[in-house]
Design a protein that fits this description.
Number of strands: 5
Organism: Streptococcus cuniculipharyngis
Distance between the termini: 20 Å
Radius of gyration: 12 Å
Number of domains: 1
CATH architecture: 3-Layer(aba) Sandwich
CATH class: Alpha Beta
Strand content: 25-35%
InterPro entries: Thioredoxin-like_sf, Thioredoxin_domain, Thioredoxin_H-type-like
CATH superfamily: Glutaredoxin
Mean pLDDT: 94
Pfam families: Thioredoxin (PF00085)
Protein name: Thioredoxin family protein
Number of helices: 5
Low-confidence stretches: none
Structural class: alpha/beta
Largest sheet: 5 strands, mixed
Length: about 100
């Protein structure tokens, strides 16, 4: 999992020709804490995606621009175009995320 710390790191992933899963989280988010342990498995089970984790509080302007109002949330982009999103206020499960990613292959 690539964890971005600064806005400047974002540009290369936005322009990527590969599908990038942007995962918005926050340290204070209990649903995010539940998701963290399964992230390595999600990556291993979905090698055709690049996973990038963003702290919603650090990337607040981007979260607003992309209409991220619930976390954890996922936005899949390719060549700076949105492909799909799993954005809501509900807790995400590993199975739900795998099903979401399978639906956009």
């Amino acid at each position: 999992m690539i964890v971005l710390k600064k806005q400047e790191e974002l540009a290369s992933y936005l322009a990527s020709k590969e599908r990038v899963v942007f995962l918005f989280t926050a340290d204070w988010c209990p649903d995010c804490q539940v998701l963290y342990p399964v992230l390595p498995d999600l990556e291993a089970e979905n090698p055709d995606f690049t996973f990038v984790q963003l702290n919603r509080d650090v990337f607040l302007d981007l979260a607003k621009a992309w209409d991220i109002f619930g976390i954890p949330s996922l936005v899949v982009r390719e060549q700076d175009q949105e492909v799909a999103r799993l954005v809501n206020k509900n807790r995400k499960t590993k199975a739900e995320i795998n099903q979401f990613l399978a639906s956009i292959r």
